[in-house]
Amino acid sequence: MAKRKALFRKPFILTRYAMKIILLALVAVLLSTSRLSAQAGVTKIGMEEGFPRYKFKYDALDIGIKEVATILENNEQAYQLIRPAKRNAAVGNSILYMGVAMAIVPLGEVFKSGGSRRYWEVYGIFAGIGVGMVGASLPFLNKANKQAEHAIDVYNAGLSGYNHKKEKPAIYLGATGTGVGLSMAF
To answer: Does residue 30 lie within any of the structural domains?
Structure first.
C-alpha cells in the first residue's frame, strides 16, 4: 500500500507576531469604518420645517408638541412660552382636520354619483366651506409654529454648552460612516 500524501506537511500555526499584525489590521478596519461621535450629555430640541407645522426632533426621535411641552416643564420660562403654542396648535389642527373632511367627503360623493350637477350644487357648498376652514386653520398653525420656535430657542439657550448664535462652518478630517473622510459642520 502506498502512503497517502498529507495536504499540509506542517500544521498551520499563527505566531504571536502574525496574530498581533492581524489584530492590528482588524482594529484599523473597524475604526475606519465606524462612526465616532460624542455628546455633551445634554440634548437640545431641534425643529424641521414641514407643512403645515414643524417637526420636532429630540435625541434623533420625532416628537410632537405635547412631548415638547413635557420636556420643557423643567424650564419655567420656556414652558410658559410653549403653552399658548400648544393651545394654538390644537385649535389649528381641529379646524384643519374638520376642513379636510368637509372638503374631501363631499367631493367623493360627487365623483361617486358620476358628477351630476345636482350633487355639485348640494355638496359643492360643503366642499367650499371645507376649503375655507383649511385656509382659516393656517394662521393658528403659523402662530403655534412661531411660539414653539421661540420656546425651544429659550430652552436650548438655557442648556450648558449650547451656543445660541450661529457659528462659522468648520471642516473636520476623521472617521465617517464609510471610512475616513472630510466633513463640514455648520
So the answer is: no
